[in-house]
Design goal:
This protein is mostly helical and 115 residues long. The chain is built from four helices and no strands. Helix 1 packs across helix 3.
């Protein structure tokens, strides 16, 4: 399986965990799991320095947790449809992860996906 396919499958799994953490009651383990999983399996392997790996996992975990909170608030408190709430939260999460990793790695964010 190509690296891009593995990354896509891991991102899909992280997305499913995010959905579960947003809409399943008392899913404490899953609430943090999506961000940790994405950080450990997609972002961290790109670096050799352990400090950067830990920072990338932290950025991913915080971004996913914040995105889940945004989706839940928009859906339950504001009354937005689930799809719109999750889409907006996903855009927020992508921006946070992209800008955070760009700053940490001192690299310019690029709109192109992985090959």
């Amino acid at each position: 399986m190509a690296n891009g396919s593995v990354g896509l499958l891991l991102a899909l799994l992280a997305g499913m965990l995010s959905y579960a953490s947003t809409y399943l009651p008392d899913s404490i383990g899953v609430r943090w799991g999506a961000g940790v999983l994405f950080g450990l399996m997609v972002l961290a392997p790109t670096q050799r320095d352990i400090g950067r790996r830990v920072a990338l996992v932290a950025i991913s975990t915080i971004a996913y947790r914040a995105a889940v909170w945004i989706a839940r608030e928009l859906h339950t408190e504001v009354g937005w449809p689930v799809v719109a709430s999750c889409a907006l939260a996903g855009v927020f999460g992508v921006l946070v992860v992209s800008l955070g990793t760009s700053a940490l790695l001192r690299a310019r964010a690029d709109l192109r996906g992985l090959p």
